[in-house]
Amino acid sequence: LTDLVTDLDPKFKEAYKLGALIISEDLGEYEEGVKLMEKGLRNNPDDFWLTYEMGFLHYLGGRNYAEARRYFMLAASLPGADERAARFAAAAAMKGGDVEAGIALWQDLASNSENKHIRELAARYIEKLRNEREAGAAAEAAVPGGGPQRKDQN
User: Fold this and answer.
1) What is the pLDDT of residues 88-133, one digit of tens each?
2) pLDDT, tens digit, 9 for 90 and up, residues 66-81
3) What's the chain look like in SS3?
4) pLDDT at residue 154 tops 70
5) Are 40 and 23 in contact (CB under 8 A)?
6) Is the dihedral angle over the CA atoms 103, 108, 113, 116 positive or is it negative?
7) Contact yes or no for 91/126 (Cβ under 8 A)
8) pLDDT in tens, 9-59
9) Which of 8, 15, 69, 92 has the fewest Cβ atoms within 10 angstroms?
10) How many CA atoms are closer than 13 Å to the CA of 124, on its beta-carbon side?
11) Bigger pLDDT: 150 vs 102
12) 37, 57, 56: which is closest to 47 by C-alpha?
């Protein structure tokens, strides 16, 4: 039904967002939801909200944090973007384990946000990620050979 509706009106953005959510979450068809959102983005390539929602679809529905980060960063660069997209790009980098990208994205927010609370939040996350990085480096240094030990090395 969503294909029919969006074929009749390719600019009906709510049909893509709601349809993808229902397909992905209620029907458990994440890939089909992604396909519908991709169609929406092909028909509305500069739409902030569709791009932002695609980030959420990957973040929540697929737990694909690299794709989520990519779409959130793209959304942040579009006309009409707000800081939420950049914040979620940083959060997706963190959630996906990319500490360096997370630090860089939070630093960008800390430097460029006009919102005091966002700058404070960014500073806290930067500190948290730096601490995680240092703890990881210390743990690696403690393992003979400088890397993580495999179970079969016991």
Assistant:
1) 999 999 999 999 999 999 999 999 999 999 999 999 999 999 998 8
2) 999 999 999 999 988 9
3) CHHHHHHHCCCCHHHHHHHHHHHHHHCCCHHHHHHHHHHHHHHCCCCHHHHHHHHHHHHHHHCCHHHHHHHHHHHHCCCCCCHHHHHHHHHHHHHCCCHHHHHHHHHHHHHHCCCHHHHHHHHHHHHHHHHHHHHHHHHHHHCCCCCCCCHHHC
4) no
5) no
6) positive
7) no
8) 999 999 999 999 999 999 999 999 999 999 999 999 999 999 999 999 999
9) 8
10) 8
11) 102
12) 37
CB 71 within 8 A of CB 51: yes
63-69 long-range Cβ contacts below 8 angstroms, 24+ apart: 65/92, 65/93, 65/95, 65/96, 65/97, 65/98, 66/92, 66/96, 66/98, 68/92, 68/96, 69/93, 69/96, 69/98, 69/101
Nearest residue to 67 (alpha-carbon basis) of 40, 98, 44: 98
> What is the value of pTM for the model shown?
0.83
The owner of tokens 């028909």 is 43
Look up tokens 């600019």; give the residue: 11
